[in-house]
TrEMBL record:
InterPro entries hit by this protein: PhaF_PhaI
Short name of one Pfam family: Phasin
Superkingdom assignment: Bacteria
Protein name: Uncharacterized protein
Length: 100
């Protein structure tokens, strides 16, 4: 299983847990153990924390991938774009020389 698959499965599991939390809170509201406003507040708090954790995980993962790519010394999109610009410039200069 690739790193991407692992992360994807973890995120999907998190979404499943989020749905279970909503169902659990709805059940507590139906039983009268929580008011609707308490239930809504609880679900919102949990959702906010889940979203923050997801964002933090995404940032951390992005940093790990970036550092790994840097260590691999692979050219970036920007590097390739600069090389393409140089190639275009040189091709233009060669074409002008050939015209003479």
């Amino acid at each position: 299983m690739s790193l991407f698959d692992t992360i994807r499965n973890t995120m999907l599991a998190g979404f499943g847990v989020q749905e279970k939390v909503r169902e659990f809170v709805d059940e507590l509201v139906k039983k009268g153990e929580l008011s609707e406003s308490q239930g809504a507040k609880l679900v919102k708090e949990w959702s906010d924390k889940f979203e923050k954790n997801t964002t933090d995980i995404s940032k951390s993962l992005n940093e790990v991938v970036t550092k790994t790519l840097e260590k691999m010394n692979l050219p970036t999109k920007d590097d390739i774009q600069k090389l393409n610009e140089k190639i275009d410039s040189l091709a233009s200069r060669v074409a002008k020389v050939e015209e003479k």
